TrEMBL record:
Domain Histidine kinase/HSP90-like ATPase: 390-502
Disordered as annotated region, ranges: 322-341
Protein name listed in UniProt: ATP-binding protein
Entry keywords, A to Z: ATP-binding, Kinase, Nucleotide-binding, Serine/threonine-protein kinase, Transferase
Organism whose genome encodes this protein: Vallicoccus soli
Length: 516
């Protein structure tokens, strides 16, 4: 029938008559959607309405039972309240928002097998049908167009906040794991995350929490899982350790922007077929540190993604505003109530608001489907920092990265080189022999620092008698370790395993040289 104005007018008039006669949304499924598909020679149609939780849900499709085509076109129409029309090439897709008393309550979408340049009469007809459907649809929940902010429960010293659009990205936050760490993940998909993909990804995250899996490996696992879910899944995964005051973040896929406060080690690159996700690690010292991740519309170009990154990085480059210190309570006053606001939680929520305002000011709020902010409070008094990693080859690289970040700020370059080489020796041996996990610890001491690596293998390293024995597999072994550090040794652990440690007394050396 194409764009014959008379035929389109008859379509709208007939739909209005049937909807008025029934006064219920069943007529949409039974008659209006099929008539629309036939009249415009479309492949299919879909009706999506706002649900009680403010998300977007498919309620009717034509043909009936077809896979719900909740694609980016439909989501953008509902999110932005602006009709989306087909382009000049590729399969045609159109979506019109459903408006009731000025509020977006859903969207009506059409798809074609090939290009379909919708002309003026077709656009007017679809707009009129959308108005009719919105009038008789069952009282849906309005879909807000802005980002909704939410602060998540987290351990003391860690703040987690998110901001997401209805039908956009979602934030999954775990309870602290066996080692007290917390995990926060921003999840999104160009098709909208249904319950099945989200549950599958959450299963991966639960396994990661139990095994202390670093974000670099989580990103790779989710990227490999996505094809089996028939839906691309992207976002970012953040691990936070309140006891050691550090954050680690890695992307899950490409359609996400990651920025952090200054400093840190590593490059947050998305995973690829031949590489793990790049991980960035930050340690809180006197000042808090923060990670921000933004899921952007998959249709956004590289320039938009870079502009969003620049806005996030600009906000995080400014000093974070910690909550004002509260005065000491008078003697005999009752203790603060459990669950009192954590400064890190307030800081995370404030930062999420700041990021949203900065994106809006730059005209970049539309392509952002969700934000995740994680903050670790400053810990100027913390002298001992540790990280637990799985016994896989990536642990050696991430362990060295952790040691480099955890070194005292006043350690000179030469000492940093010594400790880096010593960490490589300790970690390579531990990863090679450990059964499940490796823990690396850096402790700031008056004379210098203590570096230790603990694993669950009880064999004690000894000077190798020939190549191929124990530590000689690295080609350097204990002899090289002895040349790098002032003291080293091995301590058996009561529950099994061992701790191999090395002490570098660089402050004592520096003081002695100054007196000489």
């Amino acid at each position: 029938m194409g764009s014959d104005p008379h035929a389109l007018l008859a379509l709208v008039a007939g739909a209005a008559e049937r909807l008025a006669a029934t006064g219920r949304d069943a007529a949409v499924t039974a008659d209006v959607l099929p008539s629309l598909v036939r009249a415009l020679a479309a492949r299919g149609a879909v009706l999506a309405l706002g649900s009680a939780d403010g998300d977007l849900r498919v309620v009717a499709t034509e043909p009936p039972g077809a896979p719900p085509p909740l694609d980016g076109t439909l989501v953008r129409a509902a999110r932005d309240g602006v009709a989306q029309w087909p382009g000049g090439t590729g399969p045609g897709r159109a979506a019109v928002p459903l408006l009731r008393e000025g509020e977006v309550v859903g969207a009506l979408g059409l798809s074609w097998d090939g290009p379909h340049p919708a002309d003026g009469p077709e656009r007017h007809a679809l707009g009129a049908l959308a108005a009719l459907v919105a009038a008789v649809a069952p009282a849906p929940s309005p879909l807000g167009r802005g980002l909704r902010h939410h602060a998540h429960p987290a351990p003391a010293g860690v703040g987690v906040a998110c901001a997401a659009r209805p039908g956009g990205a979602r934030c999954a936050v775990s309870a602290p794991g066996a080692h007290g760490d917390a995990f926060a993940t921003l999840l999104d998909s160009p098709l909208g995350l249904g319950s099945a993909p989200l549950d599958a990804v959450r299963g991966v995250l639960a396994l990661a929490r139990r095994r202390s899996t670093p974000p670099a490996l989580v990103g790779k696992a989710v990227a490999e899982l996505a094809p089996d879910l028939d839906a691309e899944v992207f976002g970012a995964h953040v691990e936070a350790c309140p006891d050691s005051a550090w954050l680690a973040v890695a992307p899950l896929d490409h359609a996400v922007v990651v920025a952090t406060t200054p400093g840190g080690e590593g490059d947050p690159r998305p995973p690829a077929a031949d590489r793990l996700a790049g991980e960035r690690l930050l340690l809180a010292r006197a000042e808090p540190v923060a990670v921000a991740a933004a899921a952007i519309d998959p249709g956004a170009d590289a320039g938009t993604a870079q502009a969003v990154h620049d806005v996030l990085a600009g906000c995080l480059a400014r000093p974070l505003r910690p909550a004002e210190a509260q005065p000491e309570p008078p003697a005999g006053a009752p203790a603060p109530a459990a669950g009192a606001p954590d400064p890190a939680a307030d800081l995370a929520l404030d930062l999420a608001h700041d990021l949203e305002r900065a994106l809006a000011a730059a005209g970049l709020d539309a392509p952002v489907r969700g934000l995740l902010v994680v903050v670790a409070s400053g810990r100027p008094d913390l002298r001992r920092r540790g990280r637990t990693l799985p016994s896989s080859p990536v642990a050696a690289r991430l362990g060295r990265q952790f040691v480099a970040a955890a070194l005292p700020a006043d350690a000179p370059p030469g000492v940093r080189d010594e400790v880096s080489l010593a960490a490589a020796e300790l970690l390579s041996n531990a990863v090679r022999h450990a059964h499940e996990q490796v823990e690396v610890v850096v402790e700031d001491e008056p004379d210098g620092l203590l570096l230790s690596v603990t694993d669950d293998d009880e064999r004690v390293p000894e000077p190798a008698a020939r190549a191929g024995d124990g530590w000689a597999e690295t080609g350097r072994g204990l002899a090289v370790l002895a040349a790098l550090v002032d003291e080293h040794g091995t301590t058996p652990r009561p529950g099994g395993g061992k701790e191999v440690w090395a002490r570098v007394r660089w402050r004592r050396r520096t003081a002695g040289a100054a007196r000489a």
